[in-house]
Fold this protein.
Amino acid sequence: MSRDIAQRHIIIPALGEIFRENGFAGTSLAEITYRTGLGKGSLYHFFPKGKKEMAEVVLDDVASWFEENVFLPLLECKNPKHGIQIMFKAVDDYFYSGERICLIGAFSLDDTRDQFASKLNSYFTSWNEALTSALKRNGLANKQAKDIAEDVVASIQGALVLARSQDNPKVFTRALKRLQRRIETSIHE
Amino acid sequence: MSRDIAQRHIIIPALGEIFRENGFAGTSLAEITYRTGLGKGSLYHFFPKGKKEMAEVVLDDVASWFEENVFLPLLECKNPKHGIQIMFKAVDDYFYSGERICLIGAFSLDDTRDQFASKLNSYFTSWNEALTSALKRNGLANKQAKDIAEDVVASIQGALVLARSQDNPKVFTRALKRLQRRIETSIHE
DNA sequence: AATATACTGTACCAATTGGTACAATTAAAC
DNA sequence: GTTTAATTGTACCAATTGGTACAGTATATT
C-alpha cells in the first residue's frame, strides 16, 4: 500500500463523521481542515477533486462496511436465522444504538442526493436484496420476503430519523427489537 | 388580516418547497429570491430575522397542517377506525404518494436540527400521541397502542427516505398499504 | 388630496465559500 | 548521502454567502 493511500484511509472515518453531522452542503472545508487537522494542501493532495471526492470516498467506505458486516452475512450464513441476528447486531453497533445518524439517509434528503444518486440507491437496494435472500432461505415465499425486507430497511431508517429528532436513542433500539420479533413470528408460522 | 401578514402567507408554501428540496444549509437567499420572485427588500420586510425566521414559519405551517388534517381527526373522530383512515389518506396526499420529501425529516438530519429541535420534536411527538389515542379507542392496550404508533410513524419516515433515494415513489405507497393492513389485523384480534 | 404605512429594488457590506499555485519540508529508496 | 517522491503550510483567488441601508414607489386610510 502506497504511503498515499495509507494516509488517505486514516482520515476517512473523520470525514464520515463530519458529513454525517452536517450534511454535504452544511460541511465547509474550514471545518474539515479544523477537525482533521489537515491543511488544504494535504486535503487536496489526497482528494484532488475536492469536497465531492471526499464525500464519494466516504460513501464507498460506508458501503463496503455494510457489504462486509451486514450484506455478506445475510447472503452467505449457513444458518439464515443466524445471518439475520448478525445483521441486527451489526446495525445496532454501527448506529451506536441510535445515537449515530445514517449518512446515507442524510444525503438522501440533502440537495446532494442527485450527485450521489447511484451510490445511495445501491446501498438500500443491496440491503433489501440481501435480507430478502436470507428470509427466503428461512422458508418465506418470495413476495412475503420482499415485503418484510423493505419494511425492515425502511423502519430502521425511520427510527434513526425519529431517534435523532426526539433526541432519544431508545426509539431506535425499540424499533430494532420490534422488527426482530416481527421476523421471528413470520418465520415460525 | 393586515396586508403584511396576508402577503407573507402567500409565499410560505414556496419557501416550504425550497427548504424541502435543499435543506436549510443548502438553501441560499439567492435561490429564495429567484424562486419566490421577491427581492431581498421584500423578503427582509416580511421576515426581518432572515433565513432562520423563514424556516421557522415554514415549520409552523407544516405543523399546523398536520395538526388540522392528521392529528385532530385522529384525536376527535367519533369512529376511531375512520380517523386512522383519514390519517393515511392525508399522509398519502401530503407526500404526493411518495414524490415529496418530509421537510421535518430533512431538517432532523441536517446540521440545522439543533436550531429547530423543539419544533421537530413536537411534530413527531404529537403524531405519536394522536395515533396512540386513536388506537386505544379502538380497543388496544396502552402498551400495544404506543408500540404500533411509534412503528407507523417511523415507518412512514423511513419509507419516504427510501422512496427518495431509490427514486421510486411506490416504495412509499407500498409501505402505507402494509401499515394499514398491520393496524387492521391488530385491531381485529 | 394628503398623509401614513406597506412594499420593493438597488447598491452595498464583511465574511466565508470551494478551490488553486507553489515553494518548502519531510521521508523513503538507492 | 543523494535523489526522488510524498506531504504540507501559506498566500491567494473569484464567487457567493447572509444580511443591511435606504430611497423610491405603491396602496390604503382619512
